[in-house]
Write a structure and sequence with these properties.
3 strands; 2 domains; 14% strand; 3-stranded antiparallel beta sheet; binds zinc ion; alpha+beta; 104 residues
Length: 104
């Protein structure tokens, strides 16, 4: 188990003095928030700022158990999943592990 990332929400903040685009988190005593990350491209700062929410919502989606009603898979894990949801969930779990620094 790795250390957790800085709790969100994160936001794309003003550029730092050296011109880097920043990702920040609210912090008492820091007018513009505390810097979590700096990027060359503003689009990368925007994408990184969404990470805490993306992790949270992916975890919520992966906990959802009422799937496969349309492909007939249901709760029977011996039947094949023809809707592709299990493969998508496996990829989502792998991405989550990568983002959280955990073994897949
Ligand atoms: Zn399915």
């Amino acid at each position: 188990m790795s250390a957790q990332h800085t709790p969100g929400p994160w936001f794309q903040g003003p550029q730092s003095a050296n011109g880097w685009h920043t990702v920040r988190v609210e912090d008492v005593g820091c007018t513009n928030g505390r810097i979590v990350a700096e990027t060359v491209e503003p689009e990368d700062a925007r994408a990184i700022a969404a990470l805490p929410e993306l992790i949270q919502t992916m975890e919520e989606l992966l906990r959802y158990e009422g799937h496969h009603v349309y492909c007939g898979h249901g709760d029977d894990m011996d039947k094949p999943c023809v809707c592709g949801l299990i493969a998508k969930q496996d990829r989502a779990r792998a991405a989550l592990c990568k983002a959280k620094g955990e073994a897949a």
